[in-house]
Amino acid sequence: KARQRLREFDIGDRFSRLPLPRAAVLLPLMVRGGRLHLLLTVRSLQLRRSPGEVCFPGGKREDTDKDDIDTALREAKEEVGLQPEKVEVICRLMPGIDKMNNLVTPVVGFIEDTFQVTPNPDEVSEVFVVPLEYFVKPLNYKTFSYKTSSGYSTRIHCFIYHDQEHRKSFKIWGLTAHFAVFLALVIFGERPTFEVDYDLDNLFSSSENYFTNLYASIHERKKSNL
After folding, report:
1. What is the DSSP string of 20-60?
2. How many CA atoms within 13 Å lie on the side-chain side of 217?
3. Residue 42 carries which DSSP code?
4. Closest-CA residue to 183 (of 115, 94, 111, 81)
5. pTM of this prediction exceeds 0.85
């Protein structure tokens, strides 16, 4: 059922011609105890950009990458030792734009819950999993509004997830939380316990409007810089 829902939201190459530097992340889904879970990583404290922050495996596109799927799979292999052939890629969801103005495409794939993580310590300090439903029914959630440098207002989700296995809490926010929330909305098709920037009765078209408004605000700023 999740696969079917996700395929309906596949954007394919729809935004491949936008003149922004490209990046991609893998949203690895697994079934554990009869429930869908999402695998997340914590960035190494040695990294220059966003050290210690929670994110999905992923990064910038390289010249050898054929497409966004290639980028996401290559990065997941480099960061957590996930072999590309062990990922059942389902779709690419609506992209986002990060702080560096990279166009970031989320690639959704299923992995086995028996996958043995081997984190690359130069890039990843920890790996953990969260039940996907936490991103529609969280126990610890807050939101704050954020204005891009071009003046476009958007909502930032922030989840605190207490992981029993690691006996610690992780803060999941920003673009990572944005992608996790959208993934949960697509799969579960139900109203979350908090406000979102979408019309839930028209999720695909309203998510596309959200993205194009964000992109337009950045593009305007670029033109004004020129």
Report:
1. S-EEEEEEEEEEETTEEEEEEEEE-TT-SSSTT-EE-SEEE
2. 16
3. E
4. 94
5. yes
- Output the tens digit of pLDDT for each of the chain's 226 residues: 999 999 999 999 999 889 999 999 999 999 999 999 999 999 887 877 777 899 999 999 999 999 999 999 999 999 999 999 999 999 999 999 998 889 999 999 999 999 999 999 999 999 999 999 999 999 999 999 887 766 778 889 999 999 998 899 999 999 999 999 999 999 999 999 999 999 999 999 999 999 998 898 887 765 555 4
Phi–psi pair at 77, nearest 5 degrees = -65, -45
Helix, strand, coil percentages for the chain (3-state, nearest 5): 30, 30, 40
Q: 163: which 2 tokens? A: 């992981």
User: Other CB atoms closer than 10 Å to residue 24's CB: what's the count?
Assistant: 29
Q: Are 25 and 55 in contact (CB under 8 A)?
A: yes
In total, the chain counts a number of residues equal to: 226
Q: Which residues contact 15 (CB under 8 A, 6 or more apart)?
A: 95, 103, 105, 211
Alpha-carbon gap, residue 61 to 15, rounded angstroms: 15
Question: Residue 20, Cα to own-chain centre: how many angstroms?
Answer: 18
Q: For 1-221, CATH number?
A: 3.90.79.10
